Every structure is written in C-alpha cells, then in structure tokens.
Amino acid sequence: MDGGRRLLRSLKEAFGALAPARPALAGASEGYAGFEARQPAAATRLPPRRRSIETRSSRLIRFARAHFVAEVLSLLFVGGFGLAGAVQGGQYARFIAENGSLPDQVARALGFGVEAITITGSRELYEAKILREAGISQHNSLPFLDVDDVRARLTAIPLVQEASVRKLFPNRLIIQIVERAPFAIWQKDGALELVASDGAPIMDMHDARFADLPLVVGEGANKRIGEFLKIVEAAGDLRGRVRAGVLVGQRRWNLKLSTGLEVKLPEQSPEIAAAQLGRLAREARLLEKDLLYVDFRVPGRMYARLSEDAAAARAETLAKNKKRGPA
Asked: What percent of the chain has pLDDT over 90?
C-alpha cells in the first residue's frame, strides 16, 4: 500500500493470479463487460474456507457412518452371543414354552389369540383331552394355528373317526368331530378294549354300560368280529346264551356259553355246526347236561365230555347195571 492506504496492485492483477478473465458478453456495456472480466471462471473451485468446511463435514459424516456401523455390528455380535448362550442354556426354550412362539405373541397382542373354542360331536372324549391331543393352549394365536396339523392330531386319536377345524377371526376356533361307536369288546392278554365295527381299538373298557356288547378273545379276533356275529346268528335261539367267541390260532372259533359249556367249532363252515348246536339244545336239552364241552370239529360227528362229577355218576350207573345183568 502507498501512504493513502491504497493497493499497490490493481484488482485485475490481484485476481489475475487466481484465474483468467472471461470474455464480455456480446452487446453488453463496457462497464458490465469489465465486471465480467473480473469474475472467476464457471468451473472455478469453491473458496478455500468453504471447501475446507465442507471437507470437515464430509469427514464427520463418514466418521459417524463408520461409528454407527461399528455399533450395529457390535450389538449384533453381542446379541448373537447372548442368544446362543440363551439357546444353549435352555432359557430361550423355556421362554417359548411358557409364552408361545414370537409370532404367536405378537398376534395375541394384536387381538388374534384363541379366546373361544367350540367343540361339537364329542360323547366319550372330554374337551380337555381333545385340546391336549390337538396341541391347543392359551399360547396359540389364530393366524399362526395350522388347522391341518390340528386335524391330523385329532384323527390320530383312536376314538375319533373324522375331524374338521375352522377359524373364525379374530379369535374363535370351531372343532367338529365324529367319534367311532363302540361295537364290541376285545380281550387280549387279559386286557379289555372297546373296538369299532372295523375292529380298530378305540379305548379301554372301563364302563359297565358296554358290558352287553359282543366279546371276542384272542390275537386277531378284533378283525373278525363280523365272522363271529354270523356264527352267533346261526345258533338261533341259543344266541342269547353265547357269552364270548375265542379265536384259536387265528384259524377257528370256540364259543363260550353262559352255562359254562365250551363249544369247539370246525375251521370250515362253523355256521352249520352252530345251527346244529341250536337244534340239540332245543330238542335234546343239551344245555341241561353236565358237560364240559362239545366238539364239532369232525364233520358229521359230535363229541362231548362230561364233567368229573357227571362222569363218576355215569360210571357208577353203568357198574350197577352190569351187576344186575340183563333183565
């Protein structure tokens, strides 16, 4: 500067060191053109101070992003170890067992829990058993309840023949079942079970109201109940006295009568032998005899065995008749 505090160099010289001047616009005044000549080029860089501020901001943003990613990775790393520890220690399994799965918990919180259950068609099954076997509890939610799985679980119950499961949103479940009707009693290895008409075991025999059902005994007898009932029907008036049918060697039947008499039937055409038994009971009062069993296994013949008392009495009678000699 000079003594009047003026620049020793012109502004043009000062800015000329930074960038070349742009040409004046066509038709512009000289003063405007002169001003334009002193402006930076269109592609000039930002002033140093502004550029440095923006550079620091960019660095701060990059640092913040890196710090955020590191924090997230750290949380995931720690959370993964925590979850692995919970799974290994059993806490997660206990949490799920006590509260249900996470999707079920969310659905229940939104009002889609299983709040009302309607069960129809059950006669022998209790509702608590139905729900237990179906795997339904207060932890379930309607959206995530698998009705196909529930239906499969229900039809796996021996007493259930058919089952249907329907959802009624937001929180109601409808279960309809068809139970198998007890058709006969099956005794095997000393245990009594109620079986359906197809021979499928449905439940243990523990109720006296089923005592009048047909009783079959032996391995495989439950699958041949229809065959046994045909034999009983062929016995005519004697059918009311048939207490049980015993399948011997899965080949043939023995009948147990209420009088204690055992009837051994042939493997082939047992109905014919049963009809003959009915005639003998009616015409020869066979059931009034003191017999242990009658045997029809030889075609066209019948063999009978007396009880010990009846055999002794018969032997005594024959001995007396022999002493008397012919009349």
From this structure: 53
The rounded distance, in Å, linking the Cα atoms of 160 and 169 is 26
Q: In b/e form, how buried is each residue of 146-173, taking b as 16+ CB within 10 angstroms?
A: eeeebbebbeebebbbebebeeeeebeb
CA pair distance 230, 278, nearest whole angstrom: 14
Peptide bond into 299 cis (omega under 30): no
Name 115's Cβ contacts closer than 8 Å, sequence gap at least 6. 171, 172
Q: With H, G, I as helix, E, B as strand and everything else as coil, classify residue 100.
A: coil
CA distances from 305 to 72, 84, 280, 312 (A): 94, 78, 15, 12
Cβ atoms of 163 and 177 closer than 8 Å:
yes
Average pLDDT of the chain is 78
Three-state SS at 143: coil
Stretch 283-305: mean pLDDT: 89
Residue 324 phi/psi, 5° resolution? -70, -30
pLDDT by residue (tens digit) across 65-86? Answer: 555 555 545 544 445 545 555 5
Question: Phi and psi at residue 268, in whole multiples of 5°?
Answer: -100, 135
Mean pLDDT, to the nearest integer, of 33-61?
48
- The amino acid that residue 54 corresponds to is E
Length of the chain: 327
Place of tokens 């032997």: 315
- Block residue for tokens 């796996």: 156
User: Which pair of tokens denotes residue 3?
Assistant: 């003594």
Closest CA to 142 of 118, 173, 100: 173
